[in-house]
Amino acid sequence: MSGFPAGDLADLALDPVASESSESPPSTSPAAAAADPAAATAAVDGGLDDYRRLQQRLLLATVMVSAAAVVFTAWRFDLPTAGSLLVGALAGLLYLWLLARSVSKLGNGSKKVGKIQLLVPVVLVLASSRSPQLELLPALIGFVLYKPALLLQALFDR
């Protein structure tokens, strides 16, 4: 504890201005959460809303980074390379969406993250090896474009 009485911590958690200015949200004791189940439910719902907003921002950032990369690739290289990058970027977006959906199901009867999203890179590699129109390296680079978007989002959230 940081020297605050227990009542002050609850006030900080309910005051939106105080909770936005602090680096980490104050934690309440299990006894306080048991005494006020409505506040505990509101805190969980608020956390889920924050997660959904973060998920939407990450998906949007991935789309923006991918679009910029595809335009740059089409300008600097050729259209088949840009097309392969686009296919990889769409696969990365699908992977990120499936992973976020699997993570959001945690706690609602699910105790582990699903593995279905792991099929996306496998299918991407198989498709690029079988299709003469897809190039493997640009497709894989497009697939990992969600990672720079995650890093950018982490920098902007500071």
How would you characterize the overall build of this protein?
By secondary structure, this protein is mainly α. Helices cover 75% and strands 0% of the residues. It has 8 helices and no strands. Helix 5 runs antiparallel to helix 6 and helix 5 packs parallel to helix 7.
Topology record:
Blueprint: H1 6-14, H2 16-21, H3 30-35, H4 37-76, H5 79-104, H6 119-130, H7 136-143, H8 146-156
Helix pairs in contact: 4-5, 4-8, 5-6, 5-7, 6-7
What key attributes describe this structure?
75% helix; single chain
N/C terminus separation = 23 Å
Q: What is the H-and-E element order?
A: HHHHHHHH
Low-pLDDT windows of residues = 1-29
Q: What gross morphology would you assign?
A: flat
Quick summary of this structure?
This protein is mostly helical. The chain is 75% helix and 0% strand.
